[in-house]
Amino acid sequence: MDRHRRGLGAGARLAPLGWVLAAAVPLAFLASFFGWPVATLVGRGFTTDGVLDLSGFADVAARPRTWRIVGQTLGQAAAGTVVSLLLGIPGAYVLHRCRFRGRGLVRAFVTVPFVLPTVVVGVAFRSLLVEGGPLASLHLDGTFTAIVAALVFFNYAVVVRTVGGLWENLDPRAEQAARALGAPPWRALLTVTLPALGPAIASAGSLVFLFCATAFGTVLVLGGPRYGTVETEIWIQTTQFLDLRTASVLSVVQLVLVATALAVAGRARARQERALHLALPTRSARTLTWAGSGWGERCAVVLTGAVVVALALPLATLAVRSLRTSDGWGLDHYVALGTTGAGALSVSVWQAAVNSLRVAVDATLLAVVVGGLVALVVSRKPRRRSGRRAVRLLDAVFMLPLGVSAVTVGFGVLITLDRPLGLPVDLRTSGLLVPVAQAVVAVPLVVRTVLPVLRAIDPRLREAAAAMGAAPGRVLATVDLPIVARALGLAVGFAFAVSLGEFGATSFLARPDSPTLPVVVFRLIGRPGAESAGMALAASVVLAVMTAGVMALAERLRAPGQGGLL
């Protein structure tokens, strides 16, 4: 007995050191490859030759172009958020509260647009709206409406899965009681259900606004200079005008928007998790039948069906147009993917696809290790108030890469790691920078996927294992790991898919002799000629299929009840 107690005492003494190391490794990674590069780039907006100088802010603020860009960013983000919520809330009910044949496939399909490469979405919508496209008669190519539609295409899944994840676990007895007291279905929905879903709706709205405000590839392809955002303006100022000072000032503006959106999302998410925990034991869903549905439910079904068709239309048009050649129909554009497009590319598209897969594997490994450690630390509930504050701060810090411009991260890495800390080594020539930058972007998704499952583990299971003499590491291996394994598989899928489609940071860091597939697609779009356009369409289809395949596998690994996307 004495030896058993001594063993527990040693484990207790070693445990704090283990938690410190578990937090230190992700913090060192974030500080080196996110905090330092971003701070260096942003710092250029505050200094001139090492001296504090705020004149850059006054100069940028005095330009009418700046306010036009900021206004367009807020306008596009607000419109995209409102439409996503209006369409996504009915979809959340149909896809998470009702049971019907093929529901799993539909839920997997509506998730695919969220992780599709932004360049692919831009190309898909252009193929839909340009001359010869199915919707060319609407004359929406290059308009504000086209950009908002593309933003909704991306973020519909965020609303469906975030709101649906709470809705499917919501206790139905409160709504049933309202109905029993004579309230019609619409009144019960407005007075009981929607207020209960308020935290999830607020969280989804905040995240959608964040994603819309920081959209890059889609706006760059669809909007061009006329409907640019802060994100695309940072890219233009750095790559075309080489005006790092203006880009730095705009990065500060974007950070303010990001911090505000993340603060709102964090508070809403905390309330959502508390509500979800209380409702888990009473989860229920009803079988959907047309005859047994009221008019409100039928409207939700029709609207959701129309949205699913609308989501499929750009992708279907992209696939069809990739088969259209100057001589009719055929696979000529796909055959051309094995070439460099008459010298337009440094490598063939298939070689770029292999590069993307290789980079995605490295980025996923990094993201899962770092994100898994963060989720493990943040899932704990320290007894001291200072410890709880530290955990909340760590969680918030690792959400920052979701909203900070990928262009800012990529360019910051490029100018920071030429000779880091004065060391005689140029990391910019290393092939590791691209997967590292992509891992920075993917870590928040890994954390948000794994964290709810870790928090749902009954702490008494860990206490029982420790009481039987298991060391902290063995407790993690025998209690936490088996439960979190399925969520970890989903996290791997998200990280891999996001890495495949990342374009903002990669456009700066990818070496000319080893570009990724999104970079190659963007280069083909910018070249005139039918051959380059056809290759861009075919390459976009290949990239979309790769991403959809990864997400279909990830959906199969989804643990029961794990409906939330973020």
List keywords for this structure.
6 strands; disordered N terminus; 566 residues; 2 domains; MetI-like fold; 2% strand; mainly alpha
Please tell me about this protein's structure.
With 566 residues, the protein is mainly alpha-helical. It folds into 2 domains: 1-43 and 340-566, MetI-like fold; 63-322, Orthogonal Bundle (MetI-like fold), CATH 1.10.3720.10. The protein has 24 helices and 6 strands. It is globular, with a radius of gyration of 25 Å. Mean pLDDT is 79; it is low at 1-14, 275-283 and 561-566. It holds the Pfam family BPD_transp_1.
Q: Quickly name the level 1 CATH class of the largest domain.
A: Mainly Alpha
Radius of gyration: 25 Å
- Supply the CATH architecture of the largest domain: Orthogonal Bundle
How helix-rich are the residues, as a percent range? over 70%
Query: What's the number of structural domains?
Result: 2
Order of helices and strands: HEEHHEHHHHHHHHHEHEEHHHHHHHHHHH
